[in-house]
Amino acid sequence: MSRHVPRDAEAREPLLTSDYLEPNELDSDEGETIFDRSASNITRDVGGSAQKRLTYEEAVDIAGFGLFHWLLLVVCGWANASDAVEILCVSFLLPTARCDLLLSSSDMGVLTASIFLGMMVGGYMWGYLADQRGRRRVLVVSLTVNGVFGGLASVAPWFWLFLLLRFISGIGVGGSIPVIFSYFSEFMPCQRRGAMISALATFWMAGNILAAGLAWLVIPRTWAHFSLGSLDFQSWRLFVVLCSVPSLTSAVLFRLLMPESPKFLMEAGREKEAIRVFQVIFELNMWGKGQDFPEFGLCNGSKQRGELDETRTSGSHRERLACILKKALVPIKQMFNDSLKSRSFALLIIFYCISFGYYGLWMWFPELFERIEDGGSPCANVSLLRSPLHDQSCYPVKTAVYMEGFIIAASNLPGNIFTILMMDSMGGKALLSCSLLLSSLSVFLIYVVQTKAQSLILSCVFSGVSVIAWNALDVVGTELYPTQLRSSALGFFTGVGRVAAIMGNVAFGKLVDTNCAVPVLLVSALLLTGGLVALLLPQTRQTELT
Fold it and tell me: InterPro entries, per this entry (predicted)?
């Protein structure tokens, strides 16, 4: 990537600080980004009494909006897409992997739920670490965990091992999803935050399309079948390997290019480092405009590292562990106290309803369409149960199943465009409520219709409308909580959503062969409930981050 930087007699290259997590690392060359070559040369004196002291929002406005933010959008967006690929790839495996791994419908429900169980475990843990140690390092580690263990699953010869590796991969995904949105929002001016977070959320659609496209291109192909020792390496295993690549490349991009959040640095009392990040943003955004970075100080945050270091240096191992666990629960207590209580309970219900409904249905779309390949609707064919496993045949692979999955994934596009255009004018609350209500109606109609074509059309409607709800929830969730709680809160609610996703997938696995109407109508009812509860949330349109 080329660097567009103004150079004059005294100008220096901008930096994207690679590692702000320990102050003593500022004098070390270890872990530098490609923008950090002259870091020591551009540190400014921020202690002068004559300097104007700015709030976070004022400093963001001075840094401007431009090239840096578009670069940030691409890097964070690719990470968001990689999470989508890793989550959704399992759903495309079901029509073929069920034969190689000898899976019943209940086994498939457990398999699709495994990554969500990992995300539930990882969500709050990574969110808490991001609030204490910084967003960037958590993103690098969690994306690496996601990619490495997701790739290793491709060579697992047994179902239990494949399940375990998918679970560990889910722990990584559970960290990156909530932290990405906290990290990204903390670079954005409030006037553009809604639209830019909506743009970031559209990369989920890109990941969805990428997963569906890879499945369509790879899984039906016979050339991807070969023997790896005693392992029969079918094409779906190659698909699993390819799905791990986006996460690994995202980790590399964050490690090489991205700085720590200036909002986090301010709250941690690391003023000089925060100003250096603002200088990077300014120089990239003002490239070619001949403007000099103004000197200023920052209003100090309230969270000091010394408070956290006490848990490292005092007491026995048991006492330190108890102290760490106690501190880890503090954000949850704060979320459900005083002024944050009502919004927290409302978000808890909304996350549960949308996660049960969306993931419960979405993860089963390829399998459901494979079952109605000869016509009809999923619930109209419940009497056509699966034959015993030893009588099943998954080959040759029916390519129409993956083509339909690709069409449904692509139908996200209108909803994403609508969200970007309308988020800042309508606000996240209105979009969230309306889209959940429409999603509920579309799912109910999927149960009612009687033909495959009608099922496909309504599935596309559900896809296009439900993505508006997710995008609105991403915006609202980042604006409802202060910096010291933001990642922890999103991690907690993500964990709640994963519990719901697990329950949804297990419910589908248990009932899809015997009573398809129950999980489908339950999804519709929960989405309706989420849409009504969303009306209780406060309005956050274009509010400043606290």
Answer: MFS, MFS_dom, MFS_trans_sf, Sugar_transporter_CS
